[in-house]
Design brief:
Blueprint (H helix, E strand, L loop, with lengths): L4 E4 L3 H12 L5 E3 L7 H4 L5 E4 L3 H11 L8 E4 L12 H8 L5 E5 L4 H5 L4 E6 L3 H11 L4 E6 L2 H23 L4 H22 L9 H11 L5 H10 L4 H6 L6 H16 L4 H11 L4 H9 L8
Parallel strand pairs: 1-2, 1-3, 3-4, 4-5, 6-7
Antiparallel strand pairs: 5-6
Helix pairs in contact: 3-4, 7-8, 7-9, 7-10, 7-12, 12-13, 13-14
């Protein structure tokens, strides 16, 4: 089992996942856009197909695999984002294309650089298929990487996706040097937004207080290793979004996610003030200090 795994995506996250499988004696195949072999050929006979591509690449990968996956193969999505055209999550896109395959969502407080350095971490593998989740748990579990199973793939996926938006806000907060009180309030209210939008999607409330929700939120919002955090920090220092992105290694999924979330929140009247202000900040219609003033001067209300 451990030697029949393919990692789709050779970026930092794909590399970290490959390293984790090697701890248990696996030697996964790795595919990227620069590979000289066809992806459809490489997935043949693999137990698990681990998708670690950016959100913008998910549909292209799915298109390459059309007609090439057997129903017994497990598809693991390790992408955090929302499709700009359909508003679907990665798991929903995979399920739409391969409705007979078990889909597993892998998400948690997993900064790829720390994992590659061999530092301990934990994650969640979530699926409606218990056997599939258990299989992926076995593949990735090690003394340095604790893997929990979960039966709420929607909640796990949405928690990991929306926290990227809050991470942009957290980076902004630190860039403005607003202090621990302000940041604690921001993260707490940001978690409330994650719960609101997550419940709309059908996620379980308790999921958002677990590793894929609160855990991932804390890791991403407190580390300069997070690309989304770096975006917010750069904007707080007066840089334009283009200037920030020019020096960013990799993709900050929270940028696209914010645009999609604002559309969904507006359409369904879901209260997400932090997300709305992050959207305006990214669009350049408000500065970071102005966003903080707008957030602090909203109408008084009960916490719950």
């Amino acid at each position: 089992m451990f030697d029949r795994i393919i990692i789709v995506g050779a970026g930092a996250w794909g590399g970290a996942l490959a390293d984790l499988t090697r701890i248990n004696g696996g030697e996964p195949l790795i595919w990227s856009r620069n590979c000289d072999r066809q992806l459809a050929e490489m997935v043949c006979q693999q137990t698990a197909i681990i998708s670690a591509v950016s959100m913008s690449g998910v549909r292209a990968v799915i298109a390459q695999l059309a007609g090439s996956i057997d129903p017994h193969q497990i598809i693991v999505t390790a992408t955090k984002g929302l499709d700009a055209q359909t508003n679907l999550t990665p798991a929903q896109l995979w399920h739409q294309a391969f409705p007979l395959n078990p889909i597993v969502v892998l998400s948690g407080p997993n900064l790829s650089l720390e994992i590659q350095q061999g530092l301990p971490a934990a994650t969640v593998v979530a699926s409606d298929d218990v056997d599939a989740a258990n299989t992926i748990q076995e593949i990735f579990s090690s003394p340095k990487f604790r893997v929990y199973t979960n039966d709420d793939p929607v909640g796990v996926e949405i928690a990991g996706t929306v926290k990227n938006v809050i991470a942009i806000a957290a980076g902004t907060c630190d860039g403005l040097k607003l202090g621990n009180n302000a940041k604690s309030a921001l993260l707490t209210r940001g978690l409330a937004e994650i719960v609101r939008i997550g419940q709309y999607w059908g996620g379980k409330t308790e999921t958002f207080y677990g590793l894929s929700g609160l855990g991932d939120l804390l890791a991403t919002c407190n580390s300069p290793l997070s690309r989304n955090y770096q975006v917010g920090y750069g904007l707080a220092q007066g840089k334009t979004l283009d200037e920030v992105l020019a020096n960013l290694q990799g993709t900050a999924e929270g940028i696209n996610t914010t645009k999609v979330l604002v559309k969904i929140a507006d359409r369904h009247q879901i209260y997400m003030p932090i997300t709305g202000l992050v959207d305006r900040l990214l669009a350049g219609t408000i500065t970071a200090p102005e966003a903080i003033v707008a957030l602090m001067s909203r109408d008084r209300k009960s916490e719950y």
